[in-house]
């Protein structure tokens, strides 16, 4: 059974990233992967504690299976942190995983589950810790025949800017 969702990735900030550049700093951005889609935050220059405060919206996410299974055990979100170089490709800095809070179309968007609270996710590079990501992820089912719900502006203080 096909279900359509919208994923909202509230990418707030990271801390304690390692220095990837000779300056002792990095130019970090995050890439969020979910099912077959990916999006990036903006690049913030010369920092180890970037505050992106960005909302990445993934529309038309199609999942197959029973609705209750998706609510209880949603797919994993992969978040990778990179250092943007002026020349060459971006350098991998670390990775973390998250599960979104799921709202089925027959549920209310209200406390205590929504809006989801920001949480810290430990970033790993191999077996070593490589900082923390402060973010929140929500997966909202779109009722059959309806267009996607749009993020509520000003609801959580995060702006609806999109990355590159």
UniProtKB/TrEMBL annotation:
Biased composition (Basic and acidic residues): 150-164
GO MF, one annotated term: calcium ion binding
Subcellular localization(s) per the UniProt record: Membrane
Keywords linked to the UniProt accession: Membrane, Repeat, Transmembrane, Transmembrane helix
Family annotation (Gene3D superfamilies): C2 domain
Domain C2: 1-114
Coiled coil: none
Any one of the GO BP annotations: plasma membrane organization
GO cellular component terms given for this protein: presynaptic active zone membrane; synaptic vesicle membrane
Protein name: OTOF protein
């Amino acid at each position: 059974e096909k279900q359509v969702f919208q994923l909202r990735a509230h990418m707030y900030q990271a801390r304690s990233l390692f220095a990837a550049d000779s300056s002792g700093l990095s130019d970090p951005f995050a890439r969020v992967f979910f099912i077959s889609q990916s999006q990036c935050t903006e690049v913030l220059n010369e920092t180890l504690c970037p505050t992106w405060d960005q909302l990445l919206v993934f529309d038309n996410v199609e999942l197959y299976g029973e609705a209750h299974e998706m609510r209880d055990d949603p797919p994993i979100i992969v978040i990778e942190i990179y250092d943007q170089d002026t020349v060459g490709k971006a350098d991998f800095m670390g990775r973390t995983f998250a599960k979104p809070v799921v709202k089925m179309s027959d549920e209310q968007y209200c406390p205590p589950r929504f809006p989801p609270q920001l949480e810290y996710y430990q970033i790993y590079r191999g077996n070593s810790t490589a900082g923390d990501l402060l973010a929140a992820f929500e997966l909202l089912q779109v009722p059959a025949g309806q267009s996607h719900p749009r993020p509520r502006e000003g609801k959580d203080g995060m702006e609806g800017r999109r990355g590159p």
